[in-house]
């Protein structure tokens, strides 16, 4: 909706989103910046020109006139051969850029695109429970609470229980190792007896 301000300036207001723009017909400018960029009147300029009952075609730049198009493309174009008959230009072979490993541990996580989940994709049908606040939907790494709830502490394995499990595993390994011990005393005696038999045969 155009509103005349002063001289050739108008204030254009949208009726559906209440946006407002300034149009200056003398300076051929609009705060929407479409007229200055393309040199064709935008809808705001057309609204202002319709208020003054002027033709918007008269305010289009001369570069869009048919005579200017004919003058621009009026020269003759020389024919050329097909692409298979073009001369090959001797240039250096393109090489890959030099890649240098940065300091520190290299990340294994792929840089995901916009709209994807984080580095660790959530599995469907699995409810994540935080071991810090005992709430669903996140884990302890992304938890924003500073205090740990007693119920969440019960679900964590205790250090003493973990040590007892390690000791029990060590005892099982030791028992298996002791059952695998072989008595090698008779092996030494058999070798001595074989040497004595060889000596008797030589005599």
UniProtKB/TrEMBL annotation:
Keywords (A to Z) from UniProt: Metal-binding, Zinc, Zinc-finger
GO molecular-function term, one example from the UniProt record: zinc ion binding
Domain SWIM-type: 21-53
UniProt KW Secreted keyword: no
Stored InterPro entries: Znf_PMZ, Znf_SWIM
Top-level taxon: Eukaryota
Designated name of the protein: SWIM-type domain-containing protein
């Amino acid at each position: 909706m155009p509103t005349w301000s002063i001289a050739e300036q108008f204030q254009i207001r949208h009726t559906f989103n209440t946006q407002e723009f300034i149009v200056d017909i003398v300076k051929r400018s609009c705060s929407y910046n479409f007229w200055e960029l393309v040199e064709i009147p935008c809808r705001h300029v057309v609204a202002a020109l319709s208020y003054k009952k002027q033709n918007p075609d008269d305010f289009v730049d001369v570069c869009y006139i048919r005579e200017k198009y004919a003058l621009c493309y009026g020269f003759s174009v020389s024919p050329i051969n097909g692409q298979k008959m073009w001369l090959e230009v001797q240039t250096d072979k393109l090489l890959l850029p030099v890649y240098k490993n940065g300091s520190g541990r290299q990340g294994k996580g792929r840089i995901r695109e916009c709209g994807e989940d984080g580095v660790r994709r959530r599995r469907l049908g699995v409810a994540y429970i935080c071991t810090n606040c005992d709430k669903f939907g996140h884990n302890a790494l992304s938890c924003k609470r500073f205090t740990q709830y007693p119920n969440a502490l019960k679900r964590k394995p205790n250090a003493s229980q973990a040590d007892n499990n390690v000791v029990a595993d060590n005892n099982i390994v030791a028992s298996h190792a002791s059952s695998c011990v072989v008595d090698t005393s008779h092996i030494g005696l058999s070798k001595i007896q074989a040497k004595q038999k060889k000596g008797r045969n030589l005599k």
